[in-house]
Write a structure and sequence with these properties.
- The protein has 610 residues and is an alpha/beta fold.
- It contains 19 helices and 26 strands.
- The strands form five sheets. Strands 3-2-4-1-10-9-11-14 form an eight-stranded antiparallel sheet, with helices on one face. Strands 5-6-7-8-12-13 form a six-stranded antiparallel sheet.
- Strand 9 and strand 10 form a beta hairpin.
- The protein is globular.
- The chain starts with a strand and ends in an 18-residue tail after the last helix.
- Bound molecules: 2-deoxy-2-amino glucitol-6-phosphate.
- 2-deoxy-2-amino glucitol-6-phosphate binds next to helix 9.
- Its EC number is 2.6.1.16.
- It catalyses: D-fructose 6-phosphate + L-glutamine = D-glucosamine 6-phosphate + L-glutamate.
- Catalyzes the first step in hexosamine metabolism, converting fructose-6P into glucosamine-6P using glutamine as a nitrogen source.
Length: 610
């Protein structure tokens, strides 16, 4: 979603803002802009529909923008089409106040009507412009006073960056339900939607909390609550290497991140396995608590939800406790049955997905304990959870998640083993076998990645199929959901995933000669059942690409057109391996279609609006 970067210091702001925006490109955007305060010419704004390079060219065409305080923004359109005029920054009618915003002002229509009745003219169709105009309305010489009045008047989600020409040595920021961080440096301060935008300049950051306002100058940073009472903020050091946010020789971040999976999974599991046992420090899952657990409610969106779908099979089988998996956007409005004995397992790469965050808050409100699986350290979901288990995947830049998905699965497996150990629901022999299999996953991932040329070859055979169905049962179905999402999000091909046994209840009518079916059939106990469904689609003319384990290559090969295999492992761990051919297949198909793989159309990396 929208990206914000701001700079105030003793250097020229524009190059820092443009570079920060480039680093935020991965979040997804359709237009971009900067506002810089030039001591001689006042607030200068350049904004445009299109890529950062278009913006940079326009800035250069004006001979650059001079000034040491400024804001930058990448916009992902919500209110008003992508256009030059709807791009941020938005400026109050008299040009005094510039604003960038991430989020949605839900009551913007009512405020706009009110301001229009006082004679204010609006330039854009955006909800954000009401913030700039409302700030001007409330401004009587003190920008902080105006900001507090505005945040008490607007409803919805916002991360705001503000520059006022009357106090041009400072940036103002405010936040509610949309991420915003402050960065500290020698003689400068920065603000940004996430650390990737500022990591080049500083690793010392703090995270603004809901309702807080920040005031930044080159040398000082003040944080206040919504009533301008001072707030002490804890600074954190960010460990991520800048190289982790660069392509390192790969054509796309997505391929780089696919290839990083063995390391990411190893980094995630190794520190949590000691002396043959899973150790989850700081996680309060005691035998007593687990005994009284009535349900595990998994709350997530997109691929994180697909991890939840796989987790349901593993957790229910190993813990014999009911597991419900909810799309966060549904959970928050479905009046869920949650008690103080419910464990809410919240899964999110970014830790900022607005629906997932709202689901977390709803679960807590209803009394559940919240354990989250999060990749971004210090993100809102991590901070608001009772306990958090971080995935150590490092920064994930490609919109299509790969290594975060794999590390989330690994954490689920650790939780399942840990809880089973606490509850005594699996035998020691089964526990040891699963743990050994989990420890073997990074090496097995390397084996799967070594087979990528075969996957590339199959992608070259199948890339022109306009419609693709993924089928599978049990864990294989969960993997099919993720395979289908990967394919559609980056290659724009129509694709659906079905539980294999469900196909004949309607969807099989869509199968005709030339339809591609990807059949995932690693789970031994349902292999024959899935193969029966494969025969059904084959006999209706479908081309079938099978995915199974090495030991069933021959058995599957007798029925399907092509087979891809992964090393054999415990059923519970199959998704960790099976997903990789799906990721690579989607990647190579998208490549052959010439798609913008790291920044697919209409998508954002971190979905911070409903
Ligand atoms: C997956 O490739 C997508 N980018 C998307 O479905 C993503 O998983 C979803 O938006 C959830 O994001 P989160 O894990 O950051 O909460």
């Amino acid at each position: 979603m929208c990206g914000i970067v701001g700079f105030v210091g003793k250097k020229e702001a524009t190059p820092i803002l443009l570079e920060g925006l480039r680093r935020l490109e991965y979040r997804g955007y359709d237009s971009a802009g900067v506002a810089v305060y030039d001591p001689e010419r006042g607030l200068q704004v350049v904004k445009t529909k299109g890529r950062i390079q278009v913006l940079a060219d326009q800035v250069a065409a004006r001979g650059g923008l001079r000034g040491q305080v400024g804001l930058g923004h990448t916009r992902w359109a919500t209110h008003g089409a992508p256009s030059d005029v709807n791009s941020h920054p938005h400026v109050s009618e008299n040009g005094r106040i510039a604003v960038v915003h991430n989020g949605i002002i839900e009551n913007y229509a009512e405020i706009k009507e009110f301001l229009q009745s006082t004679g204010v003219h609006f330039a854009s169709e955006t909800d954000t412009e009401v913030v700039a105009q409302l700030l001007e309305y409330y401004y009587h010489g003190n920008i902080l006073d105006a900001v507090t009045k505005v945040i008490h008047r607007i409803q919805g989600a916002y991360a705001l960056g503000i520059v006022c020409a009357d106090c041009p040595d400072r940036l103002i920021a405010a936040r509610k339900d949309s991420p915003l961080i402050l960065g500290f440096g020698e003689g400068f301060h920065v603000l940004a939607s996430d650390v990737t935008a500022v990591i080049e300049h500083t690793r010392e950051v703090c995270y603004l909390d809901d309702g807080e306002i920040a005031e930044l100058t080159a040398d000082h940073c003040w944080v206040y609550d919504a009533y301008l009472r001072p707030v002490e903020k804890e600074r954190r050091h960010v460990d991520w290497e800048i190289s982790a946010a660069e392509k390192g020789g790969y054509e796309h971040f997505m391929l780089k991140e696919i290839m990083e999976q063995p390391k990411a999974v190893r980094d995630t599991i190794s520190p949590r396995i000691q002396d043959g046992r899973v150790v989850l420090d700081g996680v309060e899952l005691t035998p007593e608590y687990l005994k009284n657990l009535d349900k595990i409610y998994i709350i997530a969106c997109g691929s994180s939800y697909h991890v939840g779908m796989a987790a349901k099979y593993t957790l229910e089988r190993m813990l014999r406790k009911p597991v419900e998996v909810a799309l966060a956007s549904e959970f928050r409005y479905c009046d869920p049955i949650v008690t103080p004995h419910t464990l809410a397992l919240v899964i999110s790469q970014s830790g900022e997905t607005i629906d997932t965050l709202a689901g977390l808050r709803e679960a807590r409100r209803l009394g559940a304990r919240v354990l989250s699986i999060v990749n971004v350290v210090g993100s809102t979901i991590a901070r608001e959870s009772d306990n958090v288990l971080y995935t150590w995947a490092g920064p994930e830049i490609a919109v299509a998640t790969t290594k975060a998905y794999s590390t989330q699965l690994a954490v689920v497996d650790l939780i399942a083993l840990y809880c089973a150990g606490q509850m005594g629901t699996v035998s020691r022999a089964e526990y040891d076998a699963l743990l050994a299999a989990l420890q073997a996953i990074p090496e097995q991932l390397e084996t799967v990645l070594e087979r990528r040329e075969e996957i590339q070859y199959l992608a070259s055979i199948y890339f022109n199929h306009p419609s693709v169905f993924f089928i599978g049962r049990n864990m294989d179905y969960a993997v099919g959901l993720e395979g289908s999402l990967k394919l559609k999000e980056i290659s724009y091909l129509h694709s659906e995933a079905y539980a294999a046994g469900e196909l004949k209840h309607g969807t099989i009518s869509l199968i005709e000669p030339g339809t591609l079916v990807v059949a995932v059939a690693g789970c031994g106990h349902v292999f024959e059942k899935t193969m029966s469904n494969v025969v059904e689609v084959k006999s209706r003319g479908a081309d079938v690409l099978g995915v199974t384990v090495d030991s069933r290559r021959e058995a599957m090969g007798r029925t399907v057109d092509h087979v891809l295999t992964v090393p054999d492992t415990e059923t519970a761990l199959l998704p960790s391996l099976e997903v990789v051919p799906m990721q690579l297949f989607a990647y190579y198909v998208a490549l052959m279609h010439g798609c913008d793989i790291d920044k697919p159309r209409n998508l954002a990396k971190s979905v911070t609006v409903e």
